[in-house]
Structure formats: C-alpha cells, structure tokens
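RECORD TYPE: inverse folding
INPUT: structure tokens
STRUCTURE:
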C-alpha cells in the first residue's frame, strides 16, 4: 500500500470513530492491565462479564492481593485458561504492591516483566492508559495488515514494526483500535464485508466479496 493510500485508509476509518476506545471495561490503569491479561484467547464480552464482579471487589493491587488467588480464580472461571490467568493476576498484583507502589509501569520492558504480560498486552496498556503510539497486534490487526497490504508480515512482531514505520500522524495513537474494530465488524475472517468497507478501493485483497454472495 502506497504512503498516500495509508493516510487515506486511516482518514476514512477515523470518520466512523474519531476517538475509538477499547471494548474492555475497566475503571483505572490497574483494572485495565488485569482485563487485558484476562483477554488473551478470550472475547472482550466474556472478559467484561467476569470482571464486572471482580472489579467491584478488587480495583487496586492491594485489594486483589487481599482477595487471594482462589477467589480471583472463582471470579474468572468462565474465561478460558482461567486458572493460569488467576495465578498471574494475583502474582502481578503482589509485584505492583511490593515493587511499584501499586502503580502500573509505563514502559514496555517493565510491563513485560510482570506475570502474564506479553508484548501485545504491554502495548495495549501503554496505548490506552498512557496515550503512547503503540501497535498491539491481535488476530484482527494481523489479518488486516496482511490482507489489505497495509503491513504484511509473517509474524505479529513484523506486522507491528511495519505499522510503526508506516502509520503517519495524526493517526498513530488510535490506529490499532481502528484496525481492531474494522477487523471485528467489517473485515471479518471468513467472509469480509467488502461491500460495506470504506477502504475497499485501497485494499489489495483479491477475493473481495459482494453483497449478493
């Protein structure tokens, strides 16, 4: 995709949502971190259902530690891989209390040192909590990067680095959210809704669909 087309691509997506937000529910930086950790291989809807009760009981690292791993596990048992996730949430909460004065770190390296926090999770937290222009590559962003020709890559890291290099201002901060939402509702995996796509003419996907199919 050409440089001029990339700017047009995001300009059009921005018209539908000028300030897109994560669909995960949270009340502060800490609960955002927990929600993103829980969202691995799970839907935002499923995570929100589980955290509604959890965050009422524990919205700070200290309260989460006090709740205990068993209770955390009970609260999130409807989410896939809940046992390991509960273990990580308890452990990272303890580390935040012991080492970071209960504050969520702002840099990627430190975030990734926490249990259950990978690069994608760190990028989401940096972007949503602190307004950093990071590019969290989930399955939707990876698919769009390759399908559209925006940022093709064989790995999520390759797609992330190409997005970081190619996405221009003023679209950088919100770029990954626009891509996630577009992938979730329009450029879906099996049958993309190309007939409803505002960037179809800029996209290099050869198997474009029509409404009649």
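DESIGNED SEQUENCE:
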């Amino acid at each position: 995709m050409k440089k001029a087309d990339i700017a047009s691509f995001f300009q059009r997506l921005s018209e539908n949502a000028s300030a897109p937000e994560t669909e995960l529910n949270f009340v502060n930086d800490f609960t955002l971190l927990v929600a993103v950790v829980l969202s691995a291989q799970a839907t935002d809807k499923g995570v929100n259902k589980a955290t509604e009760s959890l965050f009422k009981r524990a919205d700070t690292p200290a309260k989460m530690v006090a709740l205990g791993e068993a209770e955390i596990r009970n609260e999130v048992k409807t989410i896939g891989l809940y046992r390991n996730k509960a273990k990580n949430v308890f452990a990272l909460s303890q580390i935040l209390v012991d080492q970071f004065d209960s504050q969520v770190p702002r840099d990627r390296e430190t975030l990734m040192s926490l249990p259950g926090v990978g690069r994608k999770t760190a990028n989401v937290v940096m972007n949503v909590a602190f307004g950093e222009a990071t590019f969290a590559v989930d399955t939707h962003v990876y698919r769009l990067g390759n399908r559209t020709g925006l940022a093709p890559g064989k790995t999520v890291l390759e797609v992330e680095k190409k997005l970081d290099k190619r996405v221009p201002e003023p679209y950088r901060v919100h770029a990954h959210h626009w891509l996630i939402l577009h992938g979730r509702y329009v450029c879906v995996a099996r049958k993309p809704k190309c007939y409803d796509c505002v960037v179809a003419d800029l996209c290099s996907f050869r198997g474009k669909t029509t409404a009649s199919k």
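NOTES: The chain has two domains: 3-17+137-202, 29-130.
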